[in-house]
UniProtKB/TrEMBL annotation, chains A, B:
InterPro entries, per database record: DNA-bd_dom_put_sf (IPR009061), MerR-type_HTH_dom (IPR000551), MerR_fam (IPR047057)
Domain HTH merR-type: 1-73
Pfam families in UniProt: MerR_1 (PF13411)
One function term, GO molecular function aspect: DNA binding
Protein name (database record): DNA-binding transcriptional MerR regulator
Keywords: DNA-binding
SMART domains referenced in this protein's UniProt entry, alphabetically: HTH_MERR
PROSITE patterns, per database record: HTH_MERR_2
Amino acid sequence: MRMSQLSAESGISIATIKYYLREGLLHQGEQVAATRAEYDESHLRRLRLIRALLEVGRLPITSIKKVIEAVDDENMPVHDMLGTAHYALSPAVEAGDGEEWTAAREQVDHLLAELGWQVSRNAPPREELAQTLVKIRQLGLNADLTPYARAAHQLVTEIELDTVPLDGPRDAAVEALVLGTVLYGKAFDALRRLAQESESARRLKVSPPAQEGA
Amino acid sequence: MRMSQLSAESGISIATIKYYLREGLLHQGEQVAATRAEYDESHLRRLRLIRALLEVGRLPITSIKKVIEAVDDENMPVHDMLGTAHYALSPAVEAGDGEEWTAAREQVDHLLAELGWQVSRNAPPREELAQTLVKIRQLGLNADLTPYARAAHQLVTEIELDTVPLDGPRDAAVEALVLGTVLYGKAFDALRRLAQESESARRLKVSPPAQEGA
C-alpha cells in the first residue's frame, strides 16, 4: 500500500508517519519508484505498537526507541524483548538503604522464593515492592502480601498471558503485553475501589439509595 | 502535652504544626495559660491522618481540607466520611460521550448489578472503569472483567476492610482507608508485574539464571 493508505488504515497522519520513519521507529517501505514506496502489514503492526507504547504506556520517545530496538533485534530472545518493554513501563523508584530497606528486600526475595516465581534479580518491580513494604511496615500495617501475590498470579496465568501471542510477530507480542499490563492494571484498581465502597456499605449497614433501580 | 512534645512525638516540625493550626486542619489545643496550650492524643491522631493524606495519598491541601471537614462533621455518617476521602483519591477522568461510552457505562452497571455490589451512582471509579473499558474494547482485548472483580472483592473483604477500624475515632478510620487503598494498590500492581515476568519465563521455557541461588 502507499503511504496515504497506510495513514488511512492506521489513523495516523502522514506527517507523523514520516516523523517515525526519520526517527527509525518505523522501518522504511520498499522503494518501487524514485518517489514511491510500498508499505505492508508489518508497517501497520509497527504503528499499532508505537501507538500502544505512546498512548497507553505513556512512554517517552527515548524509551520507545529502546523497546523498538529490542523488537527489531531478532537475536534477542522473546522473553528478554518482553522484559525490555515491561521494565520501561515500571515507575522509577528511589531506592533507599538502611536496615528497613534490607529487611524489605529480604521479604521480597523470600516471598518470591516461596511462590516459586522466576524473576530476574534486577526486575524493577522488586524495588517498587520493597519500597511499598518499607512504608507498610513503618505504618504498622499488615505486611503479609501472600494473598495479593496469589490473586495476581491467578489473573496473570489464567487470563493476561493468554492475550499475549508468544509465537507470532514480535511487535504484536510487545503490543499485547503493554496494553494488557496497563489497561487490566487500571481496571483492577478501579474495581478494587468499587469493592471497598460496597464492603464499607455492607459493614456499616448503609441502605441502598432508593433510586438505584436497574 | 506541649507543642514541643507534640512535634517530637509526631515527627512534624513546630512550624508545620502551626501552619496546620492556622489552616484549620488541626484543632486548637486547650489554652491552659496565656502563652501555653495543651495537646493530646486527638492531635497526634490528626497529624497522622494529615501525613497519610499528604505523603501517601499525595492529595493537595484543598482536598485535604475537604476530607478533614468530613472527619470533623460528626453528623456525617462514617460511610459518607470514608467516601469523601476515597473519592478524593480517585484520579480525574475526562468523561466522554457517544455510543462507546454509553456501552461501557452499561457494562459497568451490569457488572456491578451481577456482583451485587452496593456502589453510589456518582462513585468516580465507575467512570474510571468505563474509560478503561472503552479503550479495552477499541483495542479488541478481552472485556470480561468478572475475574478481576472477584479477585478484588476477595482481597477487600478478607483483608483490607479488616484494617479499617469502623467503630473507633473517625480520623483513624480515614487514615487506615487511605493507607490501605494506596499502599496495597501499589503492592498488588508490583506483584502483578512480577507474576507476568515469571509466567512469561515459564511459557517461554527460560532457564533460571545460574547465580539465582537463595
